[in-house]
Design a protein that fits this description.
Strand content: under 5%
Number of strands: 0
Structural class: mainly alpha
Distance between the termini: 58 Å
Shape: globular
Number of domains: 2
Number of helices: 9
Helix content: over 70%
Length: 233
């Protein structure tokens, strides 16, 4: 990352390029700080309600696959670690999210769960140690369409159910803010079109999900209250 002068009493501080650099540092550390707990509201909601109703398994799986691909791509491209550490933090939280989704939904047997975990570990090892270097750019290129596709099952599920279940408004607000900040960081630091296209499209789709949460808010609240009453009986 480009250096910045943080001395507000210095004339250099107020130069346009330096102000952009300061803003860049702010966004980078803002994203990292936010990434530490961005999925916590969603996890808390699932653990409290003991249900993951309204969440799309396919969306979460694809998010994990895309994040892993971007992490490996960043390692190969020798991109500054601080510029993708947030992707690692969010991916870890998504893996924890999957654990609780499996725990409360129980749609997979233990053997199927173990098989899925083994497949994921195999994918990581393959991309890190077996994938030819000439094919590494495909990890970045495939992440853009897959990032978009990962949001579509959730958007469709929300539209189909006319409610957003246990989706967290706070989590998706944080995600969208992080997406917008990341666009600035990519333009300033990386200038990688693959990263930029990916982030721009994902920002739009996350905005769509956030809109659905607000739009279906009354119906979602009504349905969740009915579900709570049934549980108490």
């Amino acid at each position: 990352m480009k250096g910045a002068n943080f001395n507000v009493f210095s004339e250099d501080f107020y130069h346009k390029q330096n102000l952009i650099s300061v803003l860049n540092y702010f966004f980078v550390y803002f994203i990292i700080a936010g990434a530490c707990f961005i999925k916590i509201p969603q996890l808390r909601k699932i653990i409290t309600k003991k249900t993951a109703v309204g969440l799309s398994f396919m969306s979460i799986y694809l998010e994990i696959f895309v994040a892993t691909s971007l992490i490996v791509f960043s390692i190969y491209e020798k991109i500054n670690f601080i510029l993708y550490v947030d992707v690692i933090l969010i991916n870890v939280q998504n893996l924890i999210l999957v654990f609780f989704m499996w725990k409360y939904h129980k749609i997979y047997s233990k053997s199927v769960q173990i098989l899925k975990v083994c497949f994921y570990i195999s994918f990581i090892l393959f991309t890190l140690y077996v994938l030819p270097k000439k094919l590494v750019p495909l990890l970045g290129l495939s992440s853009a369409p897959l990032s978009c596709f990962s949001k579509l099952p959730q958007i469709y599920l929300n539209h189909k159910n006319k409610n957003t279940g246990n989706l967290s408004l706070l989590t998706y607000t944080f995600i969208l803010c992080g997406n917008l900040a990341r666009i600035f960081i990519i333009l300033f630091n990386i200038k990688n079109q693959i990263y930029l296209i990916n982030c721009g499209l994902v920002s739009f789709l996350n905005c769509t999900i956030l809109f659905q949460i607000v739009y279906y808010w009354k119906n979602t609240t009504k349905i969740l209250m009915q579900a709570d009453k049934i549980k108490k009986k």
